UniProtKB/TrEMBL annotation:
Membrane spanning stretches: none
Top-level taxon: Bacteria
Domain Gfo/Idh/MocA-like oxidoreductase N-terminal: residue ranges: 3-118
Entry's Gene Ontology molecular function annotations: nucleotide binding
Pfam families (UniProt xref): GFO_IDH_MocA, GFO_IDH_MocA_C
UniProt name for this protein: Oxidoreductase
Residues of the Gfo/Idh/MocA-like oxidoreductase C-terminal domain: 150-320
Length: 321
């Protein structure tokens, strides 16, 4: 079992503590939080070991799980990696692109492995259709959330939209050609609502919308590709797969047939992939353990986390134009 320590005991940090504690792939050594009052409170309530010194915790573990505010990700990861510790870093990887690129260098220099917490890659609905999404040419995403002060220290692009950016980059095998975006600050000092259009060199276009001041929560993505439409509801964990194929010469009474202007007939049919219930955060942590033990590339590598951050920052920069 890998010895693990958590940095940060806020809302998400407590979830990570609980899951690492129950995982058969980790031994939870303890956690550090700069707020000693909160740290002792969490320790008393849940029985986890509280370290009042970050360096002492890092020395005691194999894996450092960084669940702190984004602004401190780089400093925490640097401390851990230079001690030869593997790092799991909540999204976004860092606050700046230079910091993210520096971590890539540390990963090579110190021979450690890092993973970024883009948890939607482990969403059971997405996993059920991942292999069916092939060369999409138009993608539309909506990620809307009710207002929560937690997370408003960063623009909505880094808070919410980056989930969809990462998913899209994992599917579209093409460099980004152009980004156009707009963002509006309503309550926070940084944009609370954003829309972005990402054009890829292969012709694919992705239209992303994110809001953290909506009246209801929504996390939906739609993928359009040749002869197929795939919808993923990340929140409700549901999928729709609508496909087309050449129509039979003698259609059945209930077959759905479309005919285009050239007279070609297509049959519409539906697929219902099995969705296996899971705990996405536990899965991302345990597959990270597998990557460490097998010395393989994690499902969401530091490089991929850096690419998602780079596109997110391109979107934010586009707000200024």
């Amino acid at each position: 079992m890998l010895k693990a320590g958590v940095l940060g005991a806020g809302h998400l940090g407590k979830i990570h503590l609980r899951l690492l504690n129950q995982s058969e792939k980790y031994e939870l050594v303890g956690f550090y939080d700069p707020d000693a009052i909160n740290g002792k409170k969490v320790a008393d309530e849940f029985g986890y070991t509280y370290f009042d010194n970050i360096n002492t915790l890092i020395e005691a573990v194999d894996v450092v799980d960084i669940v702190t505010p984004t602004l401190s990700h780089f400093e925490c990861a640097e401390k851990a990696m230079e001690k030869g510790k593997h790092v799991f870093i909540e999204k976004p990887i860092t606050n700046t692109l230079d910091e993210a690129k520096a971590l890539l260098g540390f990963e090579r220099k110190y021979g450690v492995i890092g993973q970024v917490g883009h948890v939607e890659r482990f969403n059971p609905a997405f996993m059920a259709v991942r292999e069916k999404i092939s060369e999409p040419m138009f993608i539309e995403t909506h990620r809307l959330a009710e207002f929560n002060p937690r997370g408003t220290d960063v623009p909505v692009v880094l808070d919410l939209m980056i989930h969809d950016i990462d998913v899209i980059l994992s599917i579209v095998n093409s460099p980004v050609k152009q980004v156009n975006a707009s963002g509006v600050s309503v309550i926070s000092k940084s944009p609370d609502i954003a829309n972005a259009r990402i054009e890829f060199e292969n012709g694919c276009v992705a239209n992303l919308t994110a809001s953290r001041i909506s009246l209801k929560n929504m996390r939906k993505s739609r993928f359009f590709q040749k002869d197929a439409y795939i919808s993923v509801d990340f929140l409700e964990k549901k999928v729709e797969v609508v496909k087309m194929k050449d129509a039979p010469e003698q259609p059945g009474d209930f077959d759905m047939i479309l005919q285009n202007a050239e007279g070609e007939k297509k049959q519409i049919y539906f697929e219902n992939p099995d969705i296996e219930a899971n705990n996405a955060i536990l899965d991302e942590l345990e597959t990270f353990a597998d990557a460490i033990n097998g010395n393989t590339t994690p499902i969401v590598s530091l490089k991929q986390g850096t690419q998602a951050l780079e596109v997110a920052l391109m979107i934010i920069e586009s707000f200024k134009k």
